[in-house]
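Course exercise 7: structure representation. Students receive a sequence record and must write out the corresponding structure in token form. The form below is the worked example handed out in class, using Cytochrome P450 (196 residues). Read each field label carefully; the graders check that inputs and outputs are placed in the correct fields and that the protein name is recorded exactly as given.

STUDENT ID: A-19
EXERCISE PROTEIN: Cytochrome P450
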Amino acid sequence: MAYIQMKSIVASEGHPGLVLSLTLRMEGGLPMKVTSRDFDELREMHYLHAAITEAMRLYPPVAMDSHCCQNDDVLPDGTFVGKGWQVTYSAYAMARLEELWGADCEEFRPERWLDEDGVFRPESPFKYPVFHGGPRMCLGKEMAYIQMKSIAACVFERFSFRFVGGEGRPGLVFSVTLRMEGGLPMRVKKRRDSVC
Ligand code: HEM
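STUDENT ANSWER:
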């Protein structure tokens, strides 16, 4: 079992802006400090941004989202929704619609988010509703990306991970948030070229 502890520290010389300090704790091992990146470095990591976005497209943390209609209303496509009706959309199912994402919709392909210069190209939140869309969209989206990119950049640079959960894909548990049945067992190895 391994987990990451994260805290924000104030900028130091050469690291403008807020800097995140990460500690990797592995079962039976001593905690290891893995120093994070500053905002500018993280902003330039387009492929990582695309890979995280693509992972959440296929496995959205909020796989299904329900809202109750307060008053009679009409959706943009003309569908009537009555007062008190429950409206649910599934970001998980939407990711698997060919008419939205093309014939390779079930494939993990970060490149679909990059333009020809390798720059991240966002999609409409109504096509990619992982953070919801409209006026009640997630307020923590940018913070969430900073945390995810920071952890991934620091950890993958120093360690390699191999899935040791057996054959096939891990099972999924659909609850308020999507999670993996029994976790995701990994063998963690320090990379030979690691600096720490
Ligand atoms: C990958 C991480 C995250 C995902 C996928 C996510 C997803 C979502 C979704 C789908 C909603 C809409 C819920 C609804 O009303 O039906 C939401 C709302 C919200 N999220 Fe996040 N979220 C994430 C991280 C965060 C973080 C880190 C924060 C705070 C720092 C945050 C703060 C909020 C708040 C305050 C709302 C309510 C917005 C409103 O109703 O006006 N979220 N988020």
